[in-house]
Amino acid sequence: MSNPVPKPTPVPSANGEKDKDKDNKPAAAAVIRRIQGAEETPNQRLLRKHIPAWVISGAVHVALIATLILIDKLMPKSAAGPATDEQLTVVTDDKPQDEKQPDLTNPDIGLDPELPSVVNVENLAEVNVDTKVNANEAIGLPDSVATKPVDVIPPPGVSATEGTGGLEGTTGAFMSGSGAGGEGAMMGEGFRGRNAATKSRLLATGGGNSASEAAVARGLIWLAKQQKANGSWVYDGSHSGDTIAATGMSLLPFLAAGQTHKPAKDNKYQKNVEAGVAYLLQNQQANGSFKGSSGMYSHAIATVALCELYGMTGDRAKIHAAAAKAVSFIVSVQGNDGSWGYPLSKSEGDTSIVGWQIQALHSGRMCKDILVPNETFTNASKFLDSVSDSSKKSTYGYRDRNSIRPSLTAVGLLSRYYGDKWGPNNPGMAAGVGYLMKNWMPDAKRFDMYYYYYATQVAHFYDGPEWQEWNAGKNGKKGMRDILIDLQVPEGKGANSGSWDPDTAMIGSHCGRLGTTCLALLTLEVYYRHLPLYKRDTGGLRELERNR
To answer: Could you tell me the domains of the chain?
Structure first.
């Protein structure tokens, strides 16, 4: 049974009269409160419920806004002003300044015979030198009208002379360094074979090996010791007065090995190259020729060195102008028949001297921003036509086609390759290579570095089975590579260790041990010195492109 709802107690009267039963009913106050609560409206109950929350929320927001205002006032303000260049650089450069690019090159260990080979090659084969100075020999300064110009290399001939025999010296390791600056990066595309990133691959695929690179390493050590205090080199043959040719020729093996005048961690011969180039620059005249040069042979050799150095480094501040002037001088003195003469003036000459000028012009053209007129090559080709056989133009003579011989044919073919861009498929090139291989294959008993320097380049650019036989030999007979390795003066043989005894032909007679060694080194560096202009399926360019 539920409790009945109590009846309401009467409300006191207005005059304050109290209820007589007040003391007898203690629960009256509780009943009054319940009646008051029941009398509240819904709006009043809603307001009473939410007002405290609103008050607290408002207080929190006021406090938060006040805090933010205070923080803003306390924060330091930067002075307004226009943006400077430095500020713009900081804003736009989002590349970390100290970030180092990954080193993709291998350190050059070829100069340390104690270190193992860094390339897996399958065809592996088992104090300065006193110079003789002719005090009566004219230097042949271009300013001297009383002095007849003396050429560095007289007309070459076929010299079937005895060699120096088989010398040992095959220990060592691959030399894979570059030293061109920027961790070996080459500016000119045609010089990329000298970069450590591709050099070892071209060496392996082209037929070089650890023994050939060790020979190069020893040769460079010897060559560096021959440099004079003024940065020059001096021939120890009859042309000791022509320091421009000797210096230019001595620089070329260092450049072929990737060494330049730019400081780099793997540039062991930076000081040697820097001093040698400084000597050439100090002796260059306003017209581009050089003091101390005996003729156009000398000028061309120095020009090749400057152009290669510029092509490798892109050093416009120091090298570009000198290289461009040297090339312009060659262009300006070309003879009317397209050849070049011996003196440092406009005259006509022969196939031998044309070969060095074409090499110099091609080196300039490889730099891309050195002007070499096409007309100069066209005129040179006309001269070559006049001294070649009348059919395929595959063989060449001295000043006419009646004096054809292998040495001049090698010069003519290399000139065609560079000047006329003859490739392996050219009938004249194919027939010419066949002529060389039929008439004069590499032979230690027929040691003529002038011929081998040119013919090895021709065979290398021709590639194919002919190159493999020329380079590595066939049927038990040694090729060019192993003949030169054997002929190098071995370690432990005194001051001449690392060099080659002078050949008994023209180079040895006029340029001595220094000239013979330079051309021998360049011949052993043929695998990577210049990239081929044309590809054959067996060439090293496949490796180069695969690893771009």
So the answer is: 189-546 (1.50.10.20)
